[in-house]
Design goal:
The chain has about 325 residues and is an alpha+beta fold. It has one domain. The chain has 10 helices and 14 strands. Strand 10 and strand 11 form a beta hairpin. Helix 1 packs antiparallel against helix 2 and helix 2 packs antiparallel against helix 8.
Length: about 325
């Protein structure tokens, strides 16, 4: 993974400004800042990738200019959407009453699928002939898939023209696209054990924002610690999204991660690079199971929600001049 990025990083960084399509603005300062962002992301990525620990405490993250703040996705109050320094402001969840207006349609096929997930998550379930139970990583992978299933369940009157439909079809968030995370594997194995696996990566062709589902085989030592996998995937997504041709005018690539981990927990992270530091808003760990429908309903509001046009992704909240002065 690191060797791939090491070989290609300098070429890709420099090519971002040169490959800007005709008709877009050619501001030398913007090009410098774009390249500077790629460099900063790369430095933090390498530091985290080479670390031996599976998680980082807040004081460790401060060395890499990574700042963690908390937010509560279960809070029904409307979040502040005006601060460009707050990663949460870059995303807009679906309305609280969404599920009342567009109830799930659980037909026989859907019910059978949900029941299969529930059986697989039973404490004594074993898919193996020798009776060996599922590993923590395998269980969290099933939970991640259970959450992903919500996007494919039909809902009443979801499409204004065709009526009943699924969030996967009606929303503009697509997981099967040409976008991929360069240099970041779908899964990582260390010392013979799987550490994490990235599932669907949802993108919108009109916005630089990215949402993804991450399954981990480990959990942080303390709840406030950030998993190494969470930091790596955030940095890799930002780095890759910065080089997408249609977003070369953008310098902020907001990322939302639904991170599942043992024993049966999930948390939500939203992240931006503000021109000076990586800012991550992180929820607490929330217990979940195959039947945690209220929780899945809340998480789906964020996964299928929109983006906030009131915050600008084409300029840094921290002005480049001010940033360079601080470096001096």
């Amino acid at each position: 993974m690191s060797s791939f990025l090491s070989r290609t990083f300098s070429r890709l960084t420099l090519s971002r400004a040169r490959t800007k399509p005709s008709g877009t603005s050619e501001n030398p300062e913007e090009a410098v800042d774009s390249d500077w962002v790629l460099t900063e992301l790369w430095k933090i990525y390498r530091g985290a990738e080479d670390a031996a620990s599976d998680s980082f405490a807040p004081d460790e993250l401060s060395r890499w200019n990574v700042e963690i703040t908390s937010f509560d996705p279960l809070d029904s109050r409307t979040p502040d959407t005006t601060s460009s320094l707050d990663p949460v402001a870059y995303f807009v969840p679906l309305r609280v009453d969404f599920h009342q207006k567009h109830a799930r349609i659980v037909d026989k096929e859907t019910e059978d699928s949900l029941n299969r997930r529930q059986r697989c998550l039973a404490p004594d379930y074993s898919p193996y002939r020798n009776g060996e139970l599922l590993s923590p990583g395998e269980r969290t992978a099933i939970l991640a898939c259970r959450f992903r299933d919500e996007m494919a369940i039909s809902r009443k009157n979801l499409d204004p023209e065709y009526g009943d439909s699924t969030l996967r079809l009606v929303t503009r968030w697509r997981s099967h696209t040409d976008f991929h995370i360069d240099g970041f594997p779908d899964a990582e194995v260390r010392s013979g054990r799987g550490l994490y696996e990235a599932y669907d990566i949802f993108v919108n062709s009109k916005h630089p924002h990215v949402k993804l589902i991450l399954s981990n085989a480990v959990r942080p030592e303390k709840e406030d610690d950030l998993l190494r996998s969470e930091l790596l995937v955030i940095l890799a997504v930002m780095h890759s999204r910065l080089r997408v041709e249609s977003f070369l005018d953008h310098v902020i690539m907001p990322v939302m991660v639904f991170s599942f981990m043992p024993p049966s927990h999930v948390r939500v992270l939203m992240a931006i690079f503000d021109g000076q530091k990586i800012r991550i808003s992180m929820s607490g760990l929330m217990p979940c199971s195959a039947t945690s429908q209220d929780l899945y309903d809340t998480l789906v509001r964020y996964l299928a929600g929109g983006t906030n046009p009131k915050v600008d992704t084409k300029k840094f909240p921290v002005h480049p001049v001010a940033r360079h002065m601080e470096e001096l």
